[in-house]
Amino acid sequence: MKAVVLYKTCSPLELTVSDIPIPEMKPGWVLIRVKAFGLNRSELMMREYEGNASYIRLPRVLGIECAGEIADPSDSAFHEGQQVVALMGGMGRSFDGSYAEYTLVPVKNVFTVDTDLNWNELAAIPETYFTAYGSLFQSLQLSSSDILLVRGGTSAAGLSAIQLARCTGATVLATTRKDYKREVLLRQGTDNVLIEDGTIKEQVLEIRPDGVTKILELIGPATLFESMSLVKQHGIVCVTGILGNQGTIADFYPIKDIPSGVYLTGFSSNHPTQKLIDEIFNHIKRHNLRPTISKVFALSDIGQAHQLMENNTANGKVVVSLNL
Ligand SMILES: NC(=O)c1ccc[n+]([C@@H]2O[C@H](COP(=O)([O-])OP(=O)(O)OC[C@H]3O[C@@H](n4cnc5c(N)ncnc54)[C@H](OP(=O)(O)O)[C@@H]3O)[C@@H](O)[C@H]2O)c1
Questions:
Q1: What is the reported pLDDT for 68?
Q2: For the segment 239-294, what is each residue's pLDDT rounded down to a tens digit?
Q3: Which of 162, 176, 188, 285 is the most exposed place for a label (fewest CB within 10 A)?
Q4: Inside any domain, residue 273
Q5: Which residues have C-beta atoms less than 6 Å from ligand 1?
Q6: Mean pLDDT score of the chain, rounded to an integer?
Q7: Is residue 256 one of the residues assigned to a domain?
Q8: Distance (Å, whole) CA 82 – CA 78
Q9: Ligand 1 centre from 19 Cα, in Å?
């Protein structure tokens, strides 16, 4: 089969397609015929530097999610030809992932879907919408009366969070570093666009003098302290992303660093369940949503697809189709 194998960390255009054997079946795992997959920041980090980490073993087929059909259900309750999505559980990191014609995935990371989305749209959903949905509704407990600030709004996760939040009736403020991307955020339903130019605090307080009620932090620890100063009493800040290239905080002193009466939480997409995936697809159907797709590439153009993501000009989910 054709697959994108990471042999060593490399630049986007050094990614190539290899011919490797179709994975061998084993109990508790199912074989998926991949129809399309979305790109993720974590694959970009794997390609760029994380592939050198002691806990990663190369060569590795990249890819933490996909949409496809069951090719071999093994000993599971799935049946051949069933439409599924698969995500996480070590895909593309501790075992070979989805940048391939076939991928072998543990049963617990494979989910049935009830949807009228096409394959490319479906491929844009699993990891990104699970992350956005979980951050908003599990961690931030978002409701219609909330004033939400999304930092890193033009990321695929940010755009889906804005879309999901607007369905609930919440007011949404969102940020980008680039003035020319205002339109991207407004098209998504953002009420107020803010520019990450070092004056976010002033911009928020000008629009909302008392602050906002919820913040989805996709830039991460790099802007977290400022975000915690921008929520009202009993407001919540959820750290989900690390776009600011900082994952940890040295000498974090919770008593002093978290303002009294402000809640700090996080979200990790490590534990998807069929119940949550069903909730997400019900929400998508109920509100007639379509994911914001940047561009669809063929597998042979994986280098260009990674380059688009790395350039930060995608403004939506980058998808690779196995049917092109
Ligand atoms: N917690 C979890 O389980 C989980 C799951 C999925 C993703 N994530 C994280 O969520 C974040 C978004 O992922 P994604 O795949 O949706 O990303 P993406 O689509 O590749 O994000 C691209 C956007 O990131 C912004 N950006 C890039 N570098 C930045 C920087 N240094 N400071 C501020 N903004 C920057 C750019 O916005 P502008 O140019 O418009 O400013 C660009 O439009 C990532 O950090 C990812 O690791 C976490």
A1: 98
A2: 999 999 999 999 999 999 999 999 999 999 999 999 999 999 999 999 999 999 99
A3: 285
A4: no
A5: 40-42, 127, 131, 152, 154-157, 176-178, 181, 218-219, 240-245, 267-269, 309, 312, 314
A6: 98
A7: yes
A8: 7
A9: 31
Contact by Cβ (8 Å): 261, 234: yes
**For the CA of 314, the nearest atom of ligand 1:** 43
Confidence at residue 314, expressed as pLDDT on a 0 to 100 scale: 98
Please count the residues of the chain.
324
- Tell whether 145 and 260 lie within a shared domain: yes
Contacts of 192 (CB under 8 A, 6+ apart): 172, 173, 174, 207
Mean pLDDT of 34-59: 97
The H-or-E segment that residue 32 falls in is strand 29-38
Q: How many CB atoms lie within 10 A of CB 273?
A: 11
Q: Whose CA is nearest to atom 35 of ligand 1?
A: 243
The CATH number assigned to the domain holding 248 equals: 3.40.50.720
Q: Is residue 235 part of a domain?
A: yes
Reading the block at residue 253, the tokens are 């002193």
Query: Could you tell me the residue range of the domain that residue 168 belongs to?
Result: 127-266
Residue 215 shares a structural domain with residue 146: yes
CATH, residue 88: 3.90.180.10
Residue corresponding to tokens 């096409």: 118
Q: Which residues pair with 56 in a beta bridge?
A: none
On whether both 52 and 156 belong to a single domain, the answer is: no
